[in-house]
Design a protein that fits this description.
- The protein is an alpha+beta fold.
- The protein has a single domain (about 5-160), classed as Sandwich (Jelly Rolls).
- The chain contains four helices and ten strands.
- The protein has helices spanning about 15-25, 40-45, 50-55, 150-160; strands spanning about 5-10, 35-40, 60-65, 70-75, 80-90, 95-100, 110-115, 120-125, 130-135, 140-145.
- About 30% of the residues are buried.
Length: about 160
């Protein structure tokens, strides 16, 4: 089992609803250069699985938007310890992790994390990661956790058979 990117067994029923919201909303902001909008809590009520994890671990749901032909360089998130992500659109993008051993000029031990449609993933935001976005606008639901880390959410999810 890896410690950076884990697939949940539960499929999402929210993808179309959330993408529709992302395409219609005008409430985008760009703190630190990341384009995002908050997701109304009531929208997550339609998915008891995701809503439960959000409540148990005090998560905050946002949709991140990335313009075509963009790169988000390798980084470690500031206050986010982990997140549950669902790629809504932009499936031609690439999401990478780098394990220890990299330097400022050479990123080694790169692992691509491939998103599948309607699938939730637990992401370790404290490992170096990067996105290369290609021709489509990329929309990603991210339920961010600042009080609980990847291992805590992973262990809870394994105990409750959300992850095998």
């Amino acid at each position: 089992m890896n410690n950076v990117f884990l697939k949940f067994e539960q499929k999402s029923s929210l993808s179309a609803l959330l993408l529709g919201y992302a395409l219609k909303t005008e409430n985008w902001s760009a703190p630190n250069g990341l384009i995002m909008t908050a997701v109304p809590d009531m929208m997550l009520n339609f998915d008891p699985f995701l809503n439960n994890l959000k409540q148990v671990f005090n998560g905050k749901a946002v949709i991140l938007k990335m313009n075509p032909n963009s790169i988000c360089r390798f980084h470690i998130d500031g206050i986010r310890l982990a997140s549950i992500n669902l790629l809504l659109d932009g499936f031609d993008s690439n999401f990478y992790f780098s394990t220890p051993g990299s330097t400022a000029n050479l990123i080694e031990n790169v692992v691509e994390a491939k998103y599948e449609p309607d699938t939730y993933y637990l992401v370790n935001s404290k490992e170096k990661h990067s996105v290369i976005n290609k021709s489509e606008t990329r929309y990603l639901l991210s339920v961010e956790f600042t009080e609980h880390d990847f291992a805590t959410i992973r262990d809870y999810s394994i105990e409750n058979m959300f992850i095998k």
